[in-house]
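Structure in, sequence out. Go:
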């Protein structure tokens, strides 16, 4: 019985050696470390993340410009070409500005660098703020991606329906509008870097939950109680 008690105590100690109460402090890399890592590559990823939306915006802008002289007479008041050019130019300008100037990870890193990081409470506070920033950027990135895809698609389809395709130039403009609409869909399938970072961090966080071994006393019909082995997952 002493051996059984010793085994139970040993395995129970191992099971409790990991503190699962604060996954923010157990994940590798931590959220603060991940933000620091992203600061180094943020400038390069800024252009890559917006590439799909920028290409779609250029197509929408070009289609609006070429289609402006081929609008059907009864649809000139719909301003389909002007709307297409405005949507394309607007998204293109916004994404170019963001790629050149917007550095949210750097801003977050500079802000959090001033926060204390000694006690467990201070560490937990800083890590949770970092996680909130990572998740917030994922939400923003997804909304921008969907909004860009939907508005470019709507503008292209609206223009396509307004173009007079009785002339060769009109046919080319209408074909280009169809291509522009198809290209607009690309944004749905290319997540931004902000989304990728948050998803990866979430996966790392889930990996800290590993199987826990226990050694309970199991009743043996022949010899009474005996030591056993149990395996449990904590989530």
């Amino acid at each position: 019985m002493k051996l059984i008690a010793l085994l139970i105590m040993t395995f129970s100690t191992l099971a409790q050696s990991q503190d699962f109460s604060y996954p923010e402090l157990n994940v590798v890399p931590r959220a603060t470390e991940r933000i620091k890592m992203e600061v180094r590559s943020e400038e390069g990823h800024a252009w890559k993340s917006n590439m799909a939306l920028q290409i779609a915006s250029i197509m929408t802008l070009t289609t609006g410009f070429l289609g402006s002289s081929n609008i059907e007479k009864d649809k000139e008041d719909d301003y389909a070409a002007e709307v297409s050019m405005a949507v394309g130019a607007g998204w293109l300008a916004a994404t170019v500005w963001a790629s050149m100037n917007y550095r949210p990870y750097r801003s977050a890193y500079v802000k959090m660098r001033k926060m204390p990081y000694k006690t467990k409470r201070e560490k937990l506070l800083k890590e949770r703020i970092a996680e909130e920033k990572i998740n917030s950027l994922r939400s923003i990135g997804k909304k921008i991606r969907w909004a860009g895809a939907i508005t470019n698609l709507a503008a292209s389809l609206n223009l396509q329906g307004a173009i007079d395709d009785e002339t060769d130039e009109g046919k080319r403009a209408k074909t280009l509008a169809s291509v522009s609409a198809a290209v607009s869909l690309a944004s749905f399938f290319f997540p931004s870097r902000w989304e990728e970072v948050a998803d990866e961090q979430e996966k790392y966080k889930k990996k800290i939950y590993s199987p826990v071994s226990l050694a309970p006393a199991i009743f043996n019909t022949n010899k009474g109680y005996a030591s056993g082995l149990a395996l449990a997952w904590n989530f």
